[in-house]
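hi!! sorry for the late reply, been swamped w classes. u asked for the two structures so here they r. pasted raw, havent cleaned anything up. first the sequence of the first protein and right below it the tokens
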Amino acid sequence: MPRDPYQVLGVAKGASSDQIREAHRKLAKKYHPDLNKAAEAAERFKEIQEAYDLLSDESRRKQYDQVGFAGPGAAPGGPGFGGASGWSNVDPSTFEEIFGDFMGGGRRGGRDTGAQAGQDLESDITVDFMTAALGGVRHVSLQTDNGPLSLDVRIPGGIETGGLLRLRGKGLQGFGGAPPGDLVLRVSVAAHPWFRREGLEVLLEVPISIAESALGTTVEVPLLEGTASLRVPPGTGSGKRLRLKGKGIRGRDRQGDLLAVIRVDAPVSLDDQDRVALERIRANEPDPRSKAPWKS
């Protein structure tokens, strides 16, 4: 004896036609053998179709409500679709909603849809500053709509926060032989302890003493790769940017520079000899504020 069709669809005996149709749509999508590879899916799908065929036919439903499966012609069945129950009572919009996304050669809005390509997936990753600047390969583990994903990702040199990386074929699977979608990674670049970035330029703060500021000096500074000697001319003050050509980030059209931003550090304590020397310098130097804008 077949199961109670109301129980099969999970609806009450007094359910409306719309409620029965909605329950059928959800279950048909869940158990269709093209989408559900479980061993019992095909049989469950057949049972769902038979229940819907009975309850969507007003006369057969009324007869079943009165006498159950005992009445003549009340038992579900009939010629099947793909080995399942018949679809004579399924309206075209319902059929399209359930099967239009994965049945090759289906129709949508009167047009052939054919195979359905897989959807793209999106996720966020954080890349360290040096890899973003120079490029490299980083192993990432992500939680996507497809489940956990672990793979090596090539990071192009010069990528900035907000940049997108598209990994072909790593998205959701397609239907009807169509290709899968892509995985789109949105990049966030982590801060660096001493470098920061302005476009293709890399900025580095370089502290010097008052004496080095006044007399000039040469200091060794770090680069993205290796080090370089930076000449600080006499009289260089705080905020001055000294440029090392071609030591920044490589872009499509040009190579950026490294900008050493000078910071003059005043001494915390002075002995008497140093104080006298600085007092003599101050007495001989012109007032540095004489040309300030507010002096005009």
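now the second protein. again sequence first, tokens right under
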Amino acid sequence: MRQGNYLFTSESVSEGHPDKVCDRISDTVIDAYLAADPYSRVACEALATTNFVVLAGEVRGPESVTEELLIDKVRAAIKDIGYEQEGFHWETAEIVSRLHAQSADIAVGVDAAGNKDEGAGDQGIMFGYAVRETKELMPAPISYAHEILRSMAAARHASPSLGFGPDAKSQVTLQYVDGKPVRATSIVVSTQHAESLDQETVRELVRPHVLKTLPDGWMCDEAHFYVNPTGRFVIGGPDGDTGLTGRKIIVDTYGGAAPHGGGAFSGKDPTKVDRSAAYAARYLAKNVVAAELAERCTIQLSYAIGVAKPLSIYVDTQGTGQVDEEKLARVLGEVMDLSPRGIRTHLGLNKPIYARTSAYGHFGRPAEEDGGFSWEKTDLVEELRRALA
């Protein structure tokens, strides 16, 4: 994001949004395969509509992961989100699997053989970003948009009688002065709700989650606090709108504050650089900013299918860097092996850690003891400082 004075907006969607339901389903399939064999290959797409789910894609994994097992896990995921509605119910929805074996032509390019290292699963460009706007080193608008919905979801799970439904969206517009966020100028929250609740009641149910999330004094005025602007949101989720895996890529990353490569994350095992290299780029960018080498940092990586090493490493600190960007790019390629195998090994990605990433963003989340969100660690700070001293 640029310096100067401006308004910037980011949006988030909840775990019950139809597209996020599909992301969760696809990543549930990934986790099932990786739990059975950490070197499984999976590319799984999901479609969800009124009481109907389709799984499609390519897999290579153990026979113990049966169609029946996957369907049971999908039902459990839908139940965990909270769908027990007439138009979309975890127990009664029809679930059809059309998963099939991975293409041999793709496998031969990706697999290691003889002196050939494991190659990238596809060509593409991936971006990582970090900025000193929040303690998580994330852009503030997307960070607050996620947190509003996370807070509402926690309240819904704790008190189903509250009246919130699983489907929700948020949008946060912040005013920037001299390139730094100072306050919200508008907040939009649309949430599915019980039919018995009127618009004003829903507004007051939402308000404390917004106030809790924003810094003190940042709340917008009442005229620009929009809750369910259409006045009614009872029918939601896949019953109200068809969902597909991979349609919320800007929600998944930086809310539009930084570039996004061409690929989605959910449904792809970590040999796919669309996912793993985007995680690596975020990891490197976050460590650059955490090491105080820049106030903000964008990193681009590029790959060719079947080729192990990245074709390029690009670094842009947007005028905030303390070191030469060309040297920084070279050092980043030295402190981390950016081949698909190197990324997975360094970040420990061959684990069933993906269903939890499917809502509220893949970045800005705390690293977890079992390896979840390992790309949020800042364990390269001292090595980078030494290399660039």
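hope this helps!! also noticed smth abt the second:
The chain has a mean pLDDT of 95.
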